[in-house]
Amino acid sequence: MQRLIALLIMVIPGILGVVGIKLMRDVLFGILHNGFGALWLQFFAGFILFVFGLAFVGGFIFYRDRKRNKVQTRFQKK
Questions:
Q1: Which of 18, 54, 61, 72 has a CA between 20 and 30 Å from the CA of residue 8?
Q2: Do the beta carbons of residue 16 and residue 22 sit within 8 Å?
Q3: How much helix, strand and coil, in percent to the nearest 5, is found in the chain?
Q4: Distance between CA atoms of 46 and 42, rounded to whole angstroms?
């Protein structure tokens, strides 16, 4: 059960990151989605979603590796 919950916690930010990439890609092709007034606003929202998803997944992996002592010595807890 705990592994399922952990998987869901990892999948949701991953999906947000994918949606962010899609929004930024659509700006390059000039596709404006409902809810955004301008292309630059859509790109900014996509960028924020992508950065949030990437930071969350990266932070989770870093925390897990730090707990298992699989990081460089400068990143280990003192």
A1: 72
A2: no
A3: 75, 0, 25
A4: 6
CA distance 55 to 63: 12
Residue showing tokens 């949701």: 12
Select from 13, 19, 23 the least CA-distant residue to 52.
13
Pick from 35, 69, 25, 7: nearest CA to 78: 69
- The pLDDT, as a whole number, for residue 72 is 92
pLDDT mean over 39-62: 96
For the chain, the domains span 2-75
Tell me how far apart the alpha carbons of residues 40 and 51 are, in angstroms, rounded to a whole number.
16
Burial (Cβ within 10 Å: 0-12, 13-18, ≥19) of residue 70: exposed
